[in-house]
From TrEMBL:
Heterotetramer of two alpha and two beta subunits. This is Succinate--CoA ligase [ADP-forming] subunit beta. It catalyses: succinate + ATP + CoA = succinyl-CoA + ADP + phosphate; GTP + succinate + CoA = succinyl-CoA + GDP + phosphate. The gene is sucC. InterPro entries: ATP-grasp_succ-CoA_synth-type (IPR013650), ATP_grasp_subdomain_1 (IPR013815), Succ-CoA_synthase_bsu_CS (IPR017866), SUCC_ACL_C (IPR005811), Succ_CoA_ligase-like_bsu (IPR005809), Succinyl-CoA_synth-like (IPR016102). Succinyl-CoA synthetase functions in the citric acid cycle (TCA), coupling the hydrolysis of succinyl-CoA to the synthesis of either ATP or GTP and thus represents the only step of substrate-level phosphorylation in the TCA. The beta subunit provides nucleotide specificity of the enzyme and binds the substrate succinate, while the binding sites for coenzyme A and phosphate are found in the alpha subunit. GO terms for biological process: succinyl-CoA metabolic process; tricarboxylic acid cycle. Its EC number is 6.2.1.5. Substrate binds at residues 280, 337-339.
Amino acid sequence: MNIHEYQGKEILKNFGVRVQEGIVAESPEKAVEAAKLIMAQTGSKFVVIKSQIHAGGRGKGKIRGSEQRGVQLAKSVDDVRDISKNLIGNVLVTHQTGPEGKKVNKVLVAQDVYYPGASEPKEYYIGILLDRSKACNVIMASTEGGMDIEEVAEHTPEKIFKEWVDPAIGLQPFQVRNIAFALGLQGEAFKEMVKFIGSLYKAYVETDSSMFEINPVLKTSDSKILAVDAKVNLDDNALYRHPDLIHLRDITEEDPLEVEATANDLNYVKLDGNVGCMVNGAGLAMATMDIIKLSGGEPANFLDVGGGANAKTVEAGFRIILKDPNVKAILINIFGGIVRCDRVATGVVEAYKAIGDIKVPIIVRLQGTNAEEGARIIDESGLKVFSAVQLKDAAAKVKQVLEELGE
């Protein structure tokens, strides 16, 4: 589950991580109020206005139809008002959103942390995630903060330092010091970074997160270390252990069809193809998408109805798939292990009749318990539904349907 920058920073603060302070605002008027409060508290005349969307590259991204960036420095209250008006309610396009962009519903009014002092501010990168190849968490650090880490990895991989954490013993003090040394820090900044990384890792583990990306981590001109940005991804599968974090979900940032699928206990991911697919089991879903591609089509989605597929779940799946205008055909691929194929076939027929006026052809491949009975139910339904028992038969039918449609 992705969350906003301001939400991620609140989590970090709860674990003792120093962050760039800010106040979220959903209107220009609220942004001005927030800016006045921050200016009074910090004594600075500057604040930073940061678009809050679930995507990276906001600083380089632009509001559609203008040259306005997603992150801007405001040098006065009037600047705050003007910048907020240009951001809130408009669409921000970044390299991660794609050309469709994302609507900005709120901004974070943040303190200016690039103030003058004894030394120049310096930006770093720190990320934490699971390295599946080594079955342990890895902390990645780089002196090239503020840049896309993908570019750093491609062009100067030697500037990325990695420290793997043994899950049996956890993060050790010498590992944290190794990272601080690798970043070239010394003195007070070194001590600050050691404390920062230790608290950051504790936050990552105890919130069951799947990724932390702090870019940039800033060494201020007076040697404080703080998170200027915070990209936090929480593990959906562990949210039952964190009821206090569930409310952080912002469904306005998610695909409406994926939100609807979640509400119906379906696992759904929208793709860009023309053949909708409905299966029971993630492995079978991957095989089904391969079959669609081998048949000349492109999968329009990943949809797993689970092991207990019935008329209700099948109908919900149908409705979600059919809301995608790119879908020209639907392939249902069910293995009857836990659930009997004749019950699935009955569910398909009932769902078809309940929805009514389905204009796209549907291929149903049933294999397993009572597969023949399921095929008979499909064939005798009188509906525009085609049955298949073998996977190759389903693939051939998909190919035939696409050719007839001129796809």
